[in-house]
User: What shape does this take?
Amino acid sequence: GYIVPDEDMIDPWFFRPSKSGHAVNILTFPKHVNIYADSLNQKCVIASVYK
Assistant: This one.
């Protein structure tokens, strides 16, 4: 499956709109990371960080 940021409510720290009715901003990281998104429990976890 896949996640639709404006339909699937995951952690608010990861997908957050700047203002109501505006496009979704996606949190960025200083390094490449793998994110595990658990849609059943509605949370995201950083699974690994690349150096």
About this structure: Residues 1-51 form one domain. The chain has a mean pLDDT of 71. The first strand starts at residue 15 and ends at 17.
